[in-house]
Specification:
The chain is 35% helix and 22% strand. The chain has 378 residues and is α/β, with parallel strands linked by helices.
């Protein structure tokens, strides 16, 4: 009897050891896979850092005509060298200088920094000139509009639709626009397109109803924008607080910062009366380089959209390849002006994370924490 119990004990121990062995094997394999993914994401996300920078004087007027040599960018205290520069709706120019004598410098001398500056071309570039894909990454403007169609929007719904439609028509032809709406779910009424009529049709077909999951849907919008080439911004029209999201606004702001996407928020008087939403909107827009507007009526809503349009037309586009940096966490960015321009005000995002801690650009799905499975694509 004792021998039988002993043999059963041995068989049990073998089964336990076998299960533990398989568990260790698959866990180790998953860890290696996760590490490989993290490494790949890190390499892609810090390949080129793009900043949308607004410069204003003490009266809030936009300052135009600045040159690349007027800007000083530091990342974690290390001064970076500009690789691409653009102003407003104009074309973005390459400041890359070839290491060999065959390539020619940029023809516009006003855009070339001092002669003692040295710019190393990116590996994707040939003869010191950027590849087509790289040029597309720093040119143009993609505007994502996110419209609140929750039950907060029953009052003034038509006026908001009019304001958004006018905003869509007023944007420059070079811009592409996507129109999304949200309540509990996200609806992609018009995916990114240059066809203004398609976008306006998407605006006009929206209807109000259901609870508001702003941060869930804003996260999905930022993820969509992060996957597109070119300059991009997100413009949100919200009539009230979020009452059904499971995604914290801090995670949305971090992803937008890391992807270089300014967020502009237009809210109504009802949203202004809710102090938590007011504070969140102001922090999120400031952190990403955007602005927050709180409109008292439909006239203020139109003025807010006009202000955003003007802002987009006066932004400087600054891009650089970050120098070697062992910091895989949050990296602080500062942009300052030199010489006589040091008293001007600079607005841009204040940093980024090479691999956002949660809900990253190229990682797993956010279907578990959002309504992406229920969102519609036209």
């Amino acid at each position: 009897m004792d021998g039988t119990k002993f043999e059963k004990g041995i068989r049990m121990n073998r089964r336990i050891a076998l299960v533990l062995g398989f568990t260790f094997f698959f866990t180790a394999g998953a860890d290696r896979h996760t590490q490989a993914q993290s490494s790949a994401q890190f390499q892609v996300s810090v390949d080129l850092v793009q900043l949308n920078v607004a410069v204003t004087d003490n009266k809030g007027n936009y300052v135009t005509g600045l040159k690349p040599s007027d800007f000083v960018i530091t990342e974690d205290g290390v001064q970076e060298k500009l690789a691409f520069f653009g102003e407003g709706n104009g074309a973005t120019r390459s400041l890359l200088e070839a290491q060999n004598g065959d390539a020619k410098p940029a023809p516009d001398n006003s855009s070339v920094p001092p002669a003692n500056a040295s710019y190393v071309p990116h590996p994707e570039a040939e003869s010191g000139q950027p590849s087509d894909a790289l040029s597309a990454a720093v040119a143009g403007a993609n505007v994502y509009i996110l419209f609140d169609t929750s039950n907060y929007m029953y009052r003034g719904f038509v006026f908001a639709q009019d304001a958004i439609s006018d905003f869509v028509r007023s944007l420059e032809k070079a811009d592409k626009i996507a129109f999304y709406s949200y309540s509990r779910d996200l609806s992609r009424a018009a995916t990114l397109t240059a066809d203004r009529n398609d976008v306006v049709r998407g605006v006009r077909t929206t209807v109000a109803g259901d609870d508001a999951a702003l941060y869930n849907c804003l996260l999905l919008t930022v993820k969509d924008a992060a996957q597109t080439m070119g300059r991009k911004v997100v413009v949100v029209f919200s009539n009230g607080p979020d009452n059904s999201s499971v995604v914290p606004p801090e995670d949305v702001a971090e992803l937008a910062q890391s992807a270089g996407i300014p967020i502009y928020m237009i809210s109504t008087r009802e949203a202004r009366l809710e102090p938590v939403s007011t504070a969140v909107f102001e922090r999120m827009t400031a952190a990403t380089g955007g602005k927050a507007y709180f409109s008292k009526n439909w006239r203020d809503e139109r003025k807010a959209f006009e202000s955003i349009r003007d802002d987009l037309g006066h932004l400087y586009s600054l891009s650089y390849y970050p120098k070697a940096n062992p910091n895989h966490g949050w990296r602080t960015i500062t942009v300052k002006l030199t010489g006589d321009h040091h008293n001007l005000h600079v607005r841009t995002r204040n940093g980024y994370r090479p691999q956002p801690s949660r809900y990253n650009n190229s990682g797993g799905t956010v279907a578990e924490v959002s309504t992406s499975n229920n969102s519609s694509d036209r």
